[in-house]
């Protein structure tokens, strides 16, 4: 579970810092963040479960029989960090990061959410 903790506590900060805050990122952004910050290869599916869509996850992992569905991994994350709520958001993830981040959330006219950085710091926050 140490890999899961690293992905939940670190990955959201790094991807948001490099690509801006979002619910879904393209596969290239996820892969670049994975490579740049040297996340463990073995837990890679957690990053994709958090930040890709179902189609992207399936495209990347669909041929690997040992990799389960995106929903399976989101549920594992949810069970450990979000009281079983597999519909956790970027905002929920950023609240779990070990770095200090100040992010504003705006509700769009269509009911969706937009995010903006008020400030972000690479100083470790909560342990």
Protein topology:
Blueprint: H1 2-19, H2 27-36, H3 44-51, H4 54-61, H5 70-81, H6 90-96, E1 99-107, E2 113-124
Helix pairs in contact: 1-2, 1-6, 3-5
Short description:
Helix content is 50%, strand content 17%. The protein is an alpha+beta fold and 127 residues long.
Characterization of the model:
This protein is α+β, with helices and mostly antiparallel strands and 127 residues long. It has one domain. Helix content is 50%, strand content 17%. It is built from 6 helices and 2 strands. A hairpin with a 5-residue loop joins β1 (99-107) and β2. α1 (2-19) packs across α2 (27-36) and α3 (44-51) crosses α5 (70-81). The longest helix is centred in the N-terminal third of the chain and has 18 residues, at 2-19. The relative contact order is 0.18. Residues 117-123 have low confidence and may be disordered.
């Amino acid at each position: 579970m140490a890999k899961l903790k690293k992905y939940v506590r670190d990955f959201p900060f790094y991807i948001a810092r490099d690509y801006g805050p979002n619910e879904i990122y393209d596969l290239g952004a996820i892969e670049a963040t994975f490579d740049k910050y040297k996340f463990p290869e073995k837990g890679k599916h957690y990053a994709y479960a958090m930040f890709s869509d179902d189609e992207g996850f399936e495209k990347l992992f669909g041929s690997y029989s040992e990799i389960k569905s995106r929903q399976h991994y989101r549920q594992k994350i949810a069970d450990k960090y979000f009281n079983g709520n597999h519909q956790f958001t970027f905002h929920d993830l950023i609240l779990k990061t070990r770095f200090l981040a100040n992010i504003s959330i705006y509700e769009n006219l269509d009911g969706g959410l937009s995010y903006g950085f008020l400030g972000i710091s690479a100083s470790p926050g909560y342990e």
